[in-house]
Each structure stands twice: as C-alpha cells, then as structure tokens.
Amino acid sequence: xxxxxxxxxxxxxxxxxxxxxxxxxxxxxxxxxxxxxxxxxxxxxxxxxxxxxxxxxxxxxxxxxxxxxxxxxxxxxxxxxxxxxxxxxxxxxxxxxxxxxxxxxxxxxxxxxxxxxxxxxxxxxxxxxxxxxxxxxxxxxxxxxxxxxxxxxxxxxxxxxxxxxxxx
Length: 168
Fold this sequence. Notes:
The protein is α/β, with parallel strands linked by helices. Helix content is 35%, strand content 18%.
C-alpha cells in the first residue's frame, strides 16, 4: 500500500468516465472514494439509483484491486451532495483542484500522511462551491497550465502525489 492515505472526493461524471476514474484511482492507490453531486453535475442519482451506482462502483473497485494486486479494498461511500462536505471529517491535507490557483501540487507538503483530494465534475465547481470548499478547509491547487477533463485531472493529481511520496 501507498505511504499516503488518499481519499478522493470526485464529482460524478457521465457514463463510463466515472467508472474509469474509480478504476484507475484504485490502481494508483486511493484508500476511499466519495462520489460528489454538485451544481454542475449532469448526473442525477435519486434514492435507489444512488445505491445502485454505489454498488456498481464498489464492484469496479474490486475488479481494479484484482488487476493491480491490492489486498486492501478501498470503500466507495454513498454519493453526497456538495453541502454535506461541511459535515465530512477530512483527515490530513485538504486539496481542491482549481486551474485558476497559483499554488501547485509540488508546493504542498504532503508529509507522507493523509490527503483528501476534491475534484469537480465536468464543467468544474461553481464560484459558490469553490468558496464553500475553502470555508470547509480545502486549499486550491493547480496541476499546470492546461485545463484537464475531470477524469484526467483526478488521476494526474493522484499520480503526482504518489510520485512526490516516493510510491511511483
């Protein structure tokens, strides 16, 4: 297992994009995944559908663990609305991807511990959500000069964090 304990709070994306993000994030060493429903999230998951998607993503996690040889299976929590981030007890460094920020990932001291990574959906977070996330203790970082798709951004950030921690 990785020296970092990474929780990925991922804006839910359409179709197979979310499956891809979940699968690859597990292969890269995340310890927990929390699907997030935000203002610009195009996927709607009312009641029973949310439970079915969570179960589906947990199966994707199991398959990814088999593929990469992990013996600790990361959990997928039920999808939460953005407002519930206020109640989430994030451990360690709280980072939020925001391409408008000056701070870069390699400027952050990860200290080989816990990291909670917040990644927006397709279309990103609204200005209101960005401000709320800051109030919830998340620090905005950018990955570079390009604006990446949600699935690319999450996986790139996880890969960079693992490299900085010596895991890759």
